[in-house]
Specification:
Blueprint lengths: L1 H16 L5 H36 L1
Pfam family, one: SecE
Subcellular location: Cell membrane; Membrane
Keywords: Cell membrane, Membrane, Protein transport, Translocation, Transmembrane, Transmembrane helix, Transport
């Protein structure tokens, strides 16, 4: 039981050291990720379309 209590206390102490992001940081990170994923998706879609058209024209 003592180990469980010690584990709980250490966990609580470590959790107090954590710095959580603010709403603005979360929002800006979300927008950045969304933008990067969108650009990569558009790039891959265009490459797929170009290569698909090329292969279709050959066949």
């Amino acid at each position: 039981m003592k180990k469980l209590i010690a584990y709980y206390r250490l966990s609580k102490e470590e959790l107090s050291k954590v710095i959580f992001p603010t709403k603005e940081q979360v929002r800006s990170a979300f927008i950045s990720v969304l933008l990067v994923v969108s650009v990569i998706a558009l790039f891959l879609a265009s490459v797929d379309f170009i290569l698909g058209s090329f292969v279709s024209s050959i066949l």
